[in-house]
Amino acid sequence: MEEIEGNGIKIYPLPDCDSDEDEDYKEQVRQLKEAVPFAVCGANTLLEVKGKRVRGRLYPWGVVEVENPDHCDFIKLRTMLM
After folding, report:
1. Among 29, 45, 68, 79, which residue is least crowded by beta carbons within 10 Å?
2. Cα separation of 67 and 77, whole Å?
3. Interatomic CA distance for residues 65 and 23, integer angstroms
4. Pairing, β 52-59 against β 46-49
5. Spans of all domains in the chain
6. Per DSSP, what are the bridge partners of residue 59?
């Protein structure tokens, strides 16, 4: 984050939760705030991985699955935007 701020890049600040918000929602917002900046990859290709069709990118070293939270933060970004 220091490098982002040092270069004058503006990031949308997630608003704080109201005190009467649901605890699950507060936890979700906390996790989203901790994940910023998001590491996101995109793909419009469906690949078969372990017998399952997934949206991803194929590299010589393996597959990056767009909707796998271990591979990228696409789901977190989508959650924040929705």
Report:
1. 45
2. 11
3. 30
4. antiparallel
5. 36-81
6. 62
